[in-house]
Design a protein that fits this description.
The protein is of the alpha+beta class. The protein has two domains: about 400 residues, Creatine Kinase, Chain A, domain 2; about 70 residues, no CATH class. Helix 8 runs antiparallel to helix 9. The two termini are about 30 Å apart. The relative contact order is 0.14.
């Protein structure tokens, strides 16, 4: 039996401020995060963060001092839905709370879009007349710069990182068929007018620790934000920021399922790509999904054929198991998407972002007789990602029923202020809601309280499956303040 898996997604949003006053991206991002903050907001706890610790067994030396809380200040906060909202690399970043399944991740990822929309509106109110704050959920500015969407999965420490690399690389290279956000142009080839992913062109190596230079398909950051003896965090940086709910659901859901197969050794013999990075570029540039990729043994297979191997392994694995409804839906939709792509990849419009966007762009091109190098067309590409519900092209398609929705708007609105109830995020969020004045800092794996004593009191949260509503709901309801809570916890309650 596999261990429970948990997932969270970090999204750096694109930001532009227009108007009579020029605002640089760092200041603009700080304005957006700061505008969403409330009096007495809680800072982020960096105590147990080790971003330079490598899964291959060493820690890279860093000549720079880590930023202090005072330096981060307004640019770093924790929300009552369990998420982190801060400035990273000159972008506002929303890091979702920990989720136990793909459907919940869709809900809390969508809540991030609504939070960024609201934060931008608040920040815009502080600008001189005529100023606007534009937020885009995308991964490139179209001028040679890229920013990330990172998935995080907790897996058992006992699974060797080399095995994860070997068994996941073919999956990562070929999943843009349903995870790609699509974009006009390429950093690598002038004859690529449109491609499946926004990120592929920016990847240069197979394995490495970097996230902004020499980006690797397999990132080696070993920072579990949980019990390091029991877990490793798989930090996935090769995916796109998705707006289509089906794409987000499959991006996360297939990974959670494949990780179960890895843990139980059920993937069987997988093809080994001869040149994975080159293959990643090829997949992204191939709108037919039919270009064969060279394997190490000299054979060739298409992206759809390789995805089919993973799907068949998952179907065999799940055949005699009682599946929860979310996993069953993942398996069914995964097969349906690959079947559709085999017949006509563009028929995925309304389910996956790249095909939905391509359909928009092709219609606009035909209507206005534009070439792929048209600035007007590039603006349509960008506007697809605008988070404003009345302006963003994806948002307008969704409101008209042109893209498939998996979750209700009421669930998304609830998730703006409330954490998932079945992970430790619930304890984090509820403590912020109930005892905000007594919580001085929070991280993924700890809360720090000031209850008026001689020293601060730290509550570790090393198990992501504890701190749920079922686990501590009655306890929280039975206390009047944080001091009582901590005393009860110290007493073993």
């Amino acid at each position: 039996m596999t261990t429970p898996k948990f997932v969270g997604v970090e999204t750096e949003y694109g930001i532009t401020v227009t108007g009579p006053t020029e605002v640089n991206p760092v200041l603009a991002s700080s304005m957006v995060v700061g505008a969403y903050r409330h009096a007495g907001d809680v800072r982020w706890d960096h105590t147990d963060e080790h971003p330079l610790r490598d899964a291959r067994g060493y820690e890279v030396p860093d000549a720079h001092e880590p930023p202090s809380d005072d330096e981060l200040g307004l640019a770093n906060t924790v929300l009552t839905n369990g998420a982190r909202f801060y400035v990273d690399h000159a972008h506002p970043e929303y890091s979702s709370p920990e989720c136990s399944n793909a459907r919940d991740l869709v809900i809390w990822d969508k809540a991030g879009e609504r939070i960024l929309e609201d934060a931008a509106r608040r920040a815009e109110a502080t600008l001189p007349d005529g100023g606007r704050v534009l937020i885009h959920k995308n991964n490139t500015d179209g001028k040679g710069a890229a920013y990330g969407t990172h998935e995080n999965y907790l897996v058992p420490r006992e699974i060797p990182f080399g095995r994860l690399t070997r068994e996941l690389l073919p999956f990562f290279v070929t999943r843009p068929v349903f995870t790609g956000a699509g974009r006009i142009g390429s950093e690598l080839a002038d004859d690529v007018h449109f491609q499946l992913t926004q990120r592929a062109d920016f990847f240069e190596v197979e394995v490495g620790l970097e996230t902004t230079l020499k980006r690797p398909l397999m990132n080696t950051r070993d920072e579990p934000h949980a019990d390091p003896e029991a877990y490793r965090r798989l930090h996935v940086i090769n995916g796109d920021a998705n707006l289509c709910e089906v794409a987000t659901f499959l991006k996360v859901g297939t990974m959670l399922l494949v990780l179960d197969l890895v843990e139980d050794g059920e993937l069987g013999d997988l093809p080994v790509l001869a040149r994975p990075v080159e293959a990643f570029h090829t997949v992204s540039h191939d709108l037919t999904c039919r270009v064969p990729l060279l394997l190490e043994d000299g054979r060739r297979m298409t992206a759809l054929e390789i995805q089919g191997l993973y799907l068949e392994a998952a179907k065999r694995y799940c055949k005699d198991r009682d599946l929860d409804p979310v996993t069953a839906d993942v398996l069914s939709r995964w097969e349906a998407v690959l079947t559709t792509a085999e017949a006509d990849p563009r028929a995925l419009a309304g389910q996956v972002d790249w095909a939905t966007k391509l359909d928009l762009l092709e219609s606009y091109r035909a209507r206005h007789d534009l070439g792929w190098d048209s600035d007007r067309l590039k603006m349509v590409d960008l506007q697809y990602h605008d988070v404003r519900q009345d302006k963003g092209l994806y948002q307008r398609l969704a409101s008209r029923g042109r893209v498939e929705r998996l979750v209700a708007e009421s669930e998304i609105l609830h998730a703006i202020d409330h954490a998932p109830e079945d992970t430790r995020a619930w304890f984090r969020g509820e403590c912020l809601r109930r005892f905000r004045d007594q919580v001085v800092a929070a991280g993924w794996d700890a809360l720090i309280f000031d209850t008026g004593g001689e020293s601060l009191r730290r509550v570790p949260m090393l198990e992501p499956g504890r701190g749920t509503r079922a686990h501590v709901g009655e306890l929280l309801d039975s206390v009047d303040d944080a001091a009582q809570l901590l005393d009860r916890l110290a007493g073993g309650d």
